[in-house]
Design a protein that fits this description.
Largest sheet of chain A: 5 strands, antiparallel
CATH topology of the largest domain in chain B: Rossmann fold
Shape of chain A: globular
CATH architecture of the largest domain in chain A: 2-Layer Sandwich
Number of strands of chain B: 10
Number of domains of chain A: 4
Strand content of chain B: 5-15%
Radius of gyration of chain B: 26 Å
Structural class of chain B: alpha/beta
Order of helices and strands of chain B: HEHEHEHEHHEHEHEHHHEEEHH
CATH superfamily of the largest domain in chain A: Sulfite Reductase Hemoprotein, domain 1
CATH topology of the largest domain in chain A: Sulfite Reductase Hemoprotein, domain 1
CATH class of the largest domain in chain B: Alpha Beta
CATH class of the largest domain in chain A: Alpha Beta
Oligomer: heterodimer
Helix content of chain A: 25-40%
Radius of gyration of chain A: 23 Å
Largest sheet of chain B: 6 strands, mixed
Strand order of the largest sheet of chain A: 1-2-5-4-13
Distance between the termini of chain B: 24 Å
Strand order of the largest sheet of chain B: 7-6-5-8-10-9
């Protein structure tokens, strides 16, 4: 993985020092909360319902063992002994004290980590396929491009005060796994007719209160031109994006309002001005960054077996094919039945760090499904790995299954939320386990958001739940048919809102209805497309 | 850390010192541009510190050539000083009271982006170091290599981003014959200054056919630049350097955007700055490859004979080095450049002149690394 040079290291240190001064200015009263807000946000500090929250960047979801141990240390020393992995491949601490944050950032800087631009109206952490560099179906490794984008977008002199936040996702595989269709910019690595690698570019996707799937704005942008093209998009957005209404300020609204043709024309006009200029990436820099992302060696030992059926189930759902012979990708589920999606204790983080060192070339990934991944495990080590995971509550065999629920913090933490989401997801998880239908249903996504901002990605879930507040009572709106990756789609609302307990029952009803209508090996969305919403509606509101 | 105290302190006290023009972020860029061109000073107002449109307006104005004073006024925080400076603002007048001591804070030592104030992206220093290291390594390994081998190594190392430049002068046939044999697909750039001898153009056509060169790219001066700099076609009479600049240095710089390495025909026996020529050089921007550096005049003659290469028709008339007709004269001795710009204190047109490369880099007339 990428390692800082002196320039990267100096910048992070200088930023940490700067923020220490800003915190001092806030604590002394020199800065008002209004003035401090954008500064703290660009350093990952939120003010939640009960306390400050610190969101630490995990650039494109890639971590090494040393960094994971540092995250565990921060959880232990500065928080309540746990951290929360997010849908944007980052980690959040829910209980730090503002006065401690500069010290936390200093500690993180020691291991080449930071909280820069994890919030605020700027370019956020770039996300990607958690299987990058390991996936068998990859055209090219997206990680070097994520790192190049990370650097270009950091402390950008032009794009640090955008109309609204801005998220870029990169995928190196046609299977996506980075949900590029619902990002402000989605980049897909492709090869053109001449065999050159470049990017298909999508822009104007997003979730929130106005979910939209990003249209394609370019079939092919050459690698050296990537930053020129991204700058052209950002420039058009920065100048023309709406600033009169917070809810209409994302780029998706601009693209929608002026139309994709006019938007693309404006971008191309600016790109013509920028192309071949000072933003052109030198091949040496592309090569330098790429050189950090190497494939693990093949492993020739025979795969081991394990007597238990629990292992077989885990092997079936949580282990994915690797491009290197003898290796496998292992998903560590952070979704124990009845647990809080994405939470990991400091001890669990340490265990994962040890396992990464021992079995995965020291590498760990965070997924947008709020799980962890050991990307480079030898098949010969799977049984031994499973034993340790199992002993620490980390071997739940449900990756991609119905109980692998994505969930925002909701009203338990968040001051934007209208409804609780964690407790409902816990109830749903328990009900799924009790139903015994999970394996029969196979891969199926369930996602919950506690408000319309859609941090829980409910729009793009096969089964989505949105918490709403009606006169002080929580209700949940059910959507069906959303897809996050590849051919992204927004789910359709089924009917009137449900109470919390009705919502839990409804999810089980939907799964049962799917199973009763499914033919062959149809996915949930295929069955839904064929039979329509009616059979589901009938069962839910019967 | 870099300290821009003077900048940060520049009217941090709110002021209203008669900026003749003031625009806001809400104004379309085309209108801002029209107002700014020709103005000596322009103020961009930030109604709210979170409204970042003024940053883009400033950068775009600078990129499109606005040279006047740029002033940021309005609701601005000390924490924005570094970004404002990098966006191309010269002065800041903040309305926020009381003035904070944090305006004096130095900004970060490095940048990841190019910006109008001259900051270079981190990759520039990294790439310069990488190119220098590559050149050193290649010189260690190939110091005594043959022209064929040097061309083969160079075209392998810089695949798709290497070209050669040819004047189709008296010695051009030698280098081009090696290239045609080893890497015939390599682009050959030819600067058509409009001032060449007719014999040179004929000779070019003859060589292209004889050697089977497949990728000759003719570069011409930009018509608008030429009309501005030399409307009468007489610039060579008053300022040969300016004439070379518009006819050679600029067209080549534009074309070189696509290339990171350039194969030259330079040889040590040309003398002057070429006496110590290595096979590989790094000029701070690009790699120059000199496969013929070590050849002697005798070897050049031998190659002409062995390969039955045609001669430039003027070589036999006493012209050892041939450029544009106004600045080329006969001279004594083979291979010398004494006949170029005779009577003036120069032997290079600027293409290989480090000070001109440096100037072009500074004025950003072409892509840096």
């Amino acid at each position: 993985m990428y390692q800082y040079d002196a320039i990267d290291e100096t910048l992070v240190r200088e930023r940490t020092d700067q923020f220490r001064e800003q915190v001092g200015a806030r604590l002394s009263g020199e800065l008002t909360e209004d003035q401090f807000k954008p500064l703290r946000l660009q350093n990952g500090v939120y003010l939640q319902l009960h306390a400050y929250m610190l969101r630490v960047a995990i650039p494109y979801g890639v971590l090494n063992a040393t960094q994971m141990r540092k995250l565990a240390h921060v959880a232990r020393i500065y928080d309540k002994g746990y951290g929360h992995f997010t849908t944007r491949q980052n980690i959040q601490y829910n209980w730090p004290r503002l006065v401690d944050v500069p010290d936390i950032l200093d500690e993180l800087a020691e291991v080449e980590m930071h909280a820069i631009q994890t919030s605020g109206n700027c370019i956020r952490n770039t996300t990607t396929d958690p299987f990058a560099g390991a996936a068998a179906d990859e055209v090219a490794d997206p990680r070097p491009w994520c790192e190049l984008i990370r650097q270009w977008s950091t402390f950008h002199p032009e794009f640090s005060f955008l109309p609204r936040k801005f998220k870029i996702a990169v995928t190196g595989s046609p299977a996506d796994r980075a949900a590029i269709g619902v990002h402000d910019i989605g980049l897909q690595l492709v090869r053109n007719d001449a065999g050159e690698e470049g990017f298909a570019v999508y822009a104007g996707g997003g979730q929130g209160r106005t979910p939209m799937i990003a249209p394609k704005v370019s079939d092919f942008v050459a690698q050296r031109d990537l930053l020129s093209y991204l700058s052209a998009i950002l420039r058009v957005y920065n100048l023309a994006g709406r600033r009169d209404n917070l809810y209409k300020a994302r780029i998706k609204i601009l693209v929608h309002e002026i139309g994709v043709e006019e938007f693309t024309r404006s971008v191309n006009e600016e790109f013509a001005h920028l192309q071949g200029g000072a933003l052109t990436l030198p091949q040496e820099e592309i090569d330098r960054v790429a050189s950090f992302f190497t494939a693990p060696p093949a492993d020739e030992r025979p795969a081991t077996s394990h007597p238990s059926s629990a292992f077989s189930r885990w092997r079936l759902w949580n282990v994915k094919p690797h491009k290197v012979p003898g290796r496998a990708i292992v998903i560590i589920s952070l979704k124990p039945y009845g647990g809080t999606a994405g939470d990991a204790s400091a001890d669990q983080m340490d265990v994962v760090a040890d396992l990464a060192e021992k079995y995965s070339q020291g590498e760990i990934r965070v997924t947008k499904e709020q799980n962890l991944v050991l990307p480079h495990v030898a098949q010969a080590d799977l049984a031994a790995l499973y034993e340790v995971l199992s002993a620490h509550g980390l071997a739940t065999a449900n990756a991609g299954l119905a109980s692998d629920i994505v969930c925002c913090p909701g009203l338990d933490y968040c001051n934007l939320a209208n409804a609780r989401s964690i407790p409902i997801s816990q109830e749903i998880s328990k009900a799924i386990e009790a139903s015994g239908l999970e394996e029969a249903a196979g891969e199926l996504t369930i996602k919950l958001s506690g408000c319309i901002n859609a941090c829980g990605h409910h729009h793009v879930a096969n089964i989505g739940l949105l918490g709403v507040d009606k006169k002080g009572v929580e209700f949940y709106q059910l959507t069906l048919g959303g897809i996050a990756d590849g051919a992204a789609a927004v789910g359709k609302i089924v009917g009137k809102g449900l109470s919390a307990s009705e919502a839990v029952t409804a999810v089980i009803t939907v799964i049962k209805t799917y199973l009763s209508h499914r033919t062959g090996d149809e996915t949930f969305v295929q069955t839904l497309d064929r039979v329509g919403l009616e059979p589901f509606k009938d069962e839910i509101y019967a | 850390m870099r300290n821009d105290l003077a900048f940060a302190l520049a009217d941090q006290a709110p002021g209203n010192d008669n900026a003749t023009l003031e625009v806001t972020g809400a104004m379309p860029f085309a209108d801002v541009f029209r107002l700014a061109m020709g103005a000596e000073e322009l103020a961009i107002r930030f109604e709210k510190f979170g409204d970042g449109r003024g940053f883009s307006l400033a950068v775009m104005l600078r990129e499109r050539g606005y040279k006047g004073v740029l002033k940021a006024v309005g609701d601005l925080l000390p924490d924005q000083a570094g970004l404002l400076r990098r966006a191309g603002f010269d002065r800041i007048a903040s309305d926020v009271k009381p003035a904070s001591p944090r305006w004096k804070r130095p900004h970060f030592s490095h940048a990841y982006q190019p910006s109008p104030n001259g900051d270079e992206p981190a990759w520039r220093a990294r790439t310069a170091a990488a190119r220098q290291a590559k050149v050193d390594e290649l010189n260690r390994r190939y110091a005594d290599a043959s022209p064929d081998e040097i061309i083969a190594v160079a075209t392998r190392e810089f695949t798709g981003r290497i070209a050669t430049l040819s004047s189709f002068g008296t010695e051009a046939a030698v280098g081009l014959s090696f290239l045609a044999r080893v890497a015939p697909e390599t682009p050959v750039l030819f600067l058509d200054t409009g001032m060449h001898f007719a014999q040179t153009l004929d000779y070019r056509n003859q060589l292209v056919e004889k050697l089977g060169l497949q990728n000759v790219i003719t570069l011409e001066p930009d018509a608008r630049e030429l009309a501005g700099a030399d409307p009468a076609g007489k610039l060579f009479e008053s300022d040969t350097a300016a004439c070379c600049d518009v006819r050679k240095v600029r067209p080549l710089a534009r074309a070189m955007v696509a290339f990171d390495a350039l194969i030259t025909g330079r040889k040590r026996y040309h003398g002057g700055e070429r006496s110590d020529l290595q096979p590989f050089e790094f000029d701070g921007e690009r790699v120059k490859v000199n496969p013929l550096a070590a050849l002697s005049p005798k070897e050049v003659t031998a190659i002409f004979r062995t390969l039955d290469l045609p001669q430039h028709p003027m070589a036999a008339q006493g012209y050892p080095s041939i450029g544009c007709w106004p600045c080329t004269a006969p001279a004594e001795g083979d291979g010398t450049r004494d006949g170029r710009w005779a009577g003036q204190d120069r032997t290079e047109c600027g293409i290989f002149d480090p000070s001109l490369v440096e100037r072009a880099a500074r004025t950003r007339s072409y892509r840096l690394i």
